[in-house]
Amino acid sequence: MSVHVAILLPRYVDLILRGVKTIESRLYRNQMPPIGCAKVGERIYLKQSGGPFRAIARIAAVDEHRNLIPRDVNELARRYNESVCGDPEYWKSKRGSLFAAFITLSDVEPIDVGPSYAKSMRAWHVLADDSDVIHDFILTDGAIRNRYARLSNARGVRFTLLLPDGQQVDTDLVRGNMFRWRCWGRYYDQHKLRPGDRVRLIALGGRSYRVCFVHADQSRTL
After folding, report:
1. CATH number at residue 175
2. In Å, what is the CA distance from 6 to each residue of 63, 170, 180, 198?
3. Residue 197 and residue 202: Cα distance in Å, rounded?
4. Which of 131, 155, 180 is the last residue of a domain?
5. Per-residue pLDDT tens digits for 90-129
6. Which domain, by its residues, includes 81?
7. S-S: 27 plus which of 3, 8, 97, 178, CB 3.0-4.6 Å?
8. Cβ-based burial of 67 (10 A; exposed 0-12, middle 13-18, buried ≥19)
9. pLDDT at 205
């Protein structure tokens, strides 16, 4: 699966984070990403134009159109604009588009990091899955009870974990890609984690990761 970076104007990121804008639209005269590149389940990093990364989301649905004429664009505007939140000038500027993608967003969360990518004039970038800087482990009852966490990576590789309280831990992976360090329990208790919540590792470069926790019912990091 791919990882995506979408660059948006600040007001659109604000609307996405508020849950008002639920569909990201891209209309072009030529076929460009994300058209033909976006798949359900893939992660999108939302970056403010000229500013920082501000959110992540998952692709819940993709609706693509080709060989459009202005009448088609008008119809797509009527169909989607309540969720796209485009103003009249936006749709006017897109009337000559031949290609369109409407990407429904889910699992939107604020975030302050994102992957490295080659800067260009494009406002959408498709990256290899190993570019993702966020790694989530969904907690099971067994993981909470037995005080462990996993990371999908090679056995034996060394890691530095930066915990929410400032503690720094050097560890590696053992059987089943579990972290050898097994003191997760007090953090699970402190943050009142339950099955379905997530341990989130955010890559900081090298083999260092910032650790935080995400509650499934709130989609907020702790």
Report:
1. 2.40.330.10
2. 17, 34, 36, 24
3. 16
4. 131
5. 999 999 999 999 999 999 999 989 999 998 889 999 999 8
6. 3-131
7. 97
8. exposed
9. 82
pLDDT confidence bin for 207, thresholds 50/70/90? confident
Q: Is residue 192 part of a domain?
A: yes
What pTM was estimated for this model as a whole?
A: 0.86
**DSSP string covering the chain:** --EEEEEE-HHHHHHHHTTS--EEEEEESS--TTTTT--TT-EEEEEETTS-EEEEEEEEEEEEE-S--HHHHHHHHHHHHHHH---HHHHHHTTT-SEEEEEEEEEEEE-S--------S-SEEEE-GGG--EEEEEPPHHHHHHT--B-SS-TT-EEEEE-TTS-EEEEEEEGGGEES----HHHHHHTT--TT-EEEEEEEETTEEEEEEE-TTT--B-
pLDDT for residue 155: 54
Mark which of 98, 131, 164 sits at the end of a domain: 131
Q: Which residues contact 48 (CB under 8 A, 6 or more apart)?
A: 7, 8, 9, 10, 13, 54
What the block records as the tokens of 182 is 């097994």
75-113 core/surface letters (b: 16 or more CB in 10 A; e: else): ebbeebbebbbbeeeebeebeebbbbbbbbbeebbebee
* pLDDT tens column, 68-89: 999 999 999 999 999 999 999 9
